[in-house]
Write a structure and sequence with these properties.
Elements lengths: L1 H27 L2 H8 L2 E5 L2 E2 L3 E3 L5 E2 L1 H12 L7 E5 L5 H7 L4 E2 L7 H4 L2 E10 L1 E6 L15 E5 L4 H6 L12 E5 L2 H9 L6 E4 H10 L4 E3 L7 E8 L3 H16 L2 H10 L18
Parallel strand pairs: 1-5, 1-6, 9-10
Antiparallel strand pairs: 2-3, 3-4, 7-13, 8-11, 8-12
Helix pairs in contact: 3-9, 3-10
């Protein structure tokens, strides 16, 4: 009797082990493999950046990153209707990818050495440039040098403010500014409009989207000082997915889709965007 119970217990444990192994294997498989198998993807995007990623009142999302992500998903075998869009802020992009909350992050996500220690990147699919936004009636700021002593909005998880205060920019210059924390760039716009900050500085495509939405209150100075390589974030080490996404990005530029997406989202802002395929970072 004991022998029978012992055998049954071993069989049960073996079944659990097989189940756990299967679940682990599925979780650890590459994004491109899961996409092919399930025809589903969860993609992290911004919900509060006009022109980039914006959630509309009806619950749908729109913007350049949305168009790019939808195109990439299609190339991986996932229909648009099977994409689950998850709001992903600057502060949680790495943790969402590491923990499996999202499969990919297409969220104005600049590739840099610190982030590459934590997550993997495909692309870049676009190279933006950090610029300066002020109130439309403010002519006191015309260049990077004019930022000295100004009140700068500081978004959690973004490295844009560090490019100013630490001199990590093409000018190799830094400026002393007064930092005012915010959770998002949408919140920064509210602070700028309300005159609690003097400056918002981030990627030109993000600023162009906000300026196009409210040109009476905001303007972009037009003094770029960094190169921001927008990458598609994924779990670190997923080389197979990185290569597949790069192939999709290459095709997107070759068939004219990237150019259409850029004109669609930034044409009205009279923004001079680059429409050529960027050089890819190595997949690793």
């Amino acid at each position: 009797m004991r022998k029978g119970r012992y055998g049954a217990a071993l069989a049960a444990l073996a079944a659990v082990a097989v189940l756990l192994t299967a679940c682990s294997t599925k979780k650890d498989s590459s994004v491109v493999e899961r996409a092919k198998e399930n025809n589903k993807l969860t993609i992290g995007v911004k919900f509060d950046q006009p022109g980039i990623g914006l959630k509309k009142p009806d619950g749908s999302v729109e913007g350049f990153d949305i168009d790019v992500a939808t195109y990439i998903a299609k190339q991986l075998g996932v229909d648009a209707k099977n994409i689950a869009w998850k709001e992903t802020r600057s502060v949680n992009r790495e943790s969402f990818l590491q923990n499996g909350n999202v499969d990919l992050a297409v969220a104005s996500y600049t590739i840099n050495p610190n982030r590459k220690k934590k997550v993997g990147f495909a692309g870049p699919y676009y190279i933006a440039h950090q610029d300066i936004m002020v109130r439309s009636n403010d002519n006191s700021i015309q260049s990077f040098a004019d930022l000295k002593g100004k009140r700068l909005c500081q978004v959690a998880g973004s490295n844009s403010w560090e490019n100013i205060t630490r001199g990590t920019n093409k000018l190799n210059q830094k400026q002393d500014v007064v930092l005012f924390p915010a959770n998002s760039y949408d919140e920064c716009m509210t602070k700028l409009r309300g005159k609690s900050v003097d400056v918002v500085s981030t990627d030109d495509v993000i600023l162009a989207g906000f300026a196009a939405r409210d040109p009476q209150n905001f303007k972009v100075v037009g003094a770029p000082f960094t190169d921001e390589k927008y990458g598609v974030g994924m779990k670190k080490g997923d080389k197979k997915s990185c290569e597949a996404v790069n192939m999709a990005i290459k095709k997107m530029y070759e068939d004219g889709s990237a150019q259409r997406f850029l004109e669609k989202n930034f044409g009205a802002a009279k923004f001079k965007y680059a429409d050529t395929l960027p050089a890819f970072e190595p997949c690793s």
